[in-house]
Amino acid sequence: xxxxxxxxxxxxxxxxxxxxxxxxxxxxxxxxxxxxxxxxxxxxxxxxxxxxxxxxxxxxxxxxxxxxxxxxxxxxxxxxxxxxxxxxxxxxxxxxxxxxxxxxxxxxxxxxxxxxxxxxxxxxxxxxxxxxxxxxxxxxxxxxxxxxxxxxxxxxxxxxxxxxxxxxxxxxxxxxxxxxxxxxxxxxxxxxxxxxxxxxxxxx
Length: 204
Hints:
Helix content: 25-40%
Strand content: 5-15%
Strand order of the largest sheet: 5-4-1-6-7
Oligomer: single chain
Structural class: alpha/beta
Number of strands: 7
Radius of gyration: 17 Å
Order of helices and strands: EEHHHHHEHEHEHHEEH
């Protein structure tokens, strides 16, 4: 029996705006980083893998990524990556969080900064956050999902995870959670998909 729903953050509950918040060249690298990751040496790849565990690792990882793409990373560019002003809720986010009640609501995110202020800004109540930089693990590690369940005081078998990434979010299944995958796009372009994902598991 499902007692809690844990949502991914980026691309699931919140997304980037459609207006230009970063240069097209930088955006292209962020959306398709694989060729540049492949050119990283072992130490750089280790930092990239740990980029959501500390702010320092995140800055170093993105500096390396953009350097390999022949692009600068100024303080302003790095600030924009984490600026709450450039993160907006999807049109169906509030309705989805409401539909989950009276079940518990959690957020599990690979992130190196505190996203709680975004939920407060939008008046979106969440029972527990499991943020990678705080719990010391990032998805797809099963420990990340276990930490989210522990913070909600539920067993993995009692929890549904909703996310857009088939690898990092899809690992919920190996951790013992149910999983609902959604499609994603920038805010304003994505269809309302959250309520359907919840309904597919009998919620809402």
